[in-house]
Amino acid sequence: MHRFVRSVAAGIAVTFAGTVWVSLPSEAQQSREEGELTVTAVRGGLHFLVMPTAGNLAVSVGPDGAFVIDDQFAPMVPRIQAAVAKLTDQPVRYVLNTHWHSDHAGGNAGFGRAGATLVAHENVRARLATEQESRFFKVKVPPAPAEALPVITFSRSMAFHVNGDTVRIEHIPNAHTDGDAVYYFERADVLHTGDVFVRYGYPFIDLDSGGSLAGMIAGLDRLMQIAGPDTVVIPGHGPLATRDDIRQFRDRLAEAQKRVRKLIAEGKGLEEVIAARPLADFDAEWGRSFIRNDQFVATIYRSETGA
Ligand SMILES: [Zn+2]
Predict the structure, then answer these.
(1) What pLDDT, on a 0 to 100 scale, did the predictor assign at position 34?
(2) Which pairing describes strands 157-162 and 152-154: parallel, antiparallel, or unpaired?
């Protein structure tokens, strides 16, 4: 059988017997089977699992079992299971997704088959269940298998009472995608933000999945209400953070929005806005992202104009 893997933008396209299958979008997944999986104890039985090239995981362990937020890529499932097994002899009872992207929900089928109950916003289930098309990455993503679909969904909010803590789950509308959820562990005072807040530079805002810049900014305002001064913030990607880091990220996005809006108000079209390089000074801090400056400007333009 004819099979190979190649990189497309930051995504991975797998040509399999002539069909292009894509796992997307991928906030950096080139070496998805190589990177080091590191486990850090946060507090209150909560752990932070990181592989540099994939989404961050939070794992709560205790008498009620293991409770996992996000599950990276399908090939990572055995390594995540092994890492959890070192923390507890209890099974993984629940896996919750922050959104549908395959670097966060790609392990769902593996965990679902192993007996975990999958939980996510209703739009995550809807997108996983159907073919998705990304204009940005110019790829299509096939529907996920049935065992990868969340069996419990919510529309606005819900709470879990596990391992001596209360986990408040809240939907953040039309931000990174249309199915984002954030998870706040009240007693531990730890917040997992999913990709509403990331630390790799220019953020990917998935307009094709219902995301928007305005929703990102509104969502970050909401995160600053949920988080307190001592909250440990687990971003979707990148190192642990604080509420101040969320504020800086939010202010920078708002500044970018202001500058692009000004050019749009002057009647400039997409090409002219990009040529004006309104965010040239952002590169020093954000230029290492897999999203380039001009791509980010174009995303803002499209988000603001609907073009
Ligand atoms: Zn994402």
Answers:
(1) 53
(2) unpaired
Q: What CA–CA distances, in Å, run from 59 to 44, 67, 163, 218, 239?
A: 11, 6, 11, 27, 16
Contact 114, 85 (CB under 8 A): no
Ramachandran angles phi, psi of 75, nearest 5°: -65, -15
C-alpha distances out from residue 112 to 46, 51, 93, Å: 22, 21, 10
Q: Which pLDDT score is estimated for 102? A: 93
Residue 260 tokens, joined: 């692009």
Q: 26 C-alpha to center of ligand 1: Å?
A: 7
3-state class of 292 per DSSP?
Answer: coil
Between CA 182 and CA 235 the distance in angstroms is 10
Summary count for the chain: helices (H), strands (E): 9, 17
**Ligand 1 centre and the CA of 285: distance in Å?**
20
What's this model's pTM, rounded to 2 decimal places?
A: 0.89
* DSSP notation for 15-74: EETTEEEEE---SS-TTTTTS--EEEE-STTEEEEE-TTS--EEEE-STT-EEEE----G
204 alpha carbon to ligand 1 midpoint, in Å? 7
Are residues 286 and 248 in contact, defined by beta-carbon separation less than 8 angstroms? no
Instruction: List pLDDT tens digits, range 28-56.
Output: 443 344 567 899 999 988 999 987 778 89
Dist. CA 221 → ligand 1 center (Å): 19
Q: Is the domain covering 27-251 a CATH 3.90.1150.10 domain?
A: no
| C-alpha distances in Å from residue 71, one per residue of 78, 148, 201 | 11, 11, 22
Ligand 1: centre distance to CA 105 (Å): 9
Q: Report d(CA 154, CA 166) in Å as an integer.
A: 17
- What's the Cα-to-Cα distance from 72 to each of 29, 32, 77, 123, rounded to whole Å? 10, 9, 8, 18
Ligand 1 mean position to 192 CA, how many Å? 13
Q: How many Å lie between the centroid of ligand 1 and the Cα of residue 180?
A: 9
Centre of ligand 1 to C-alpha 99, Å, is 7
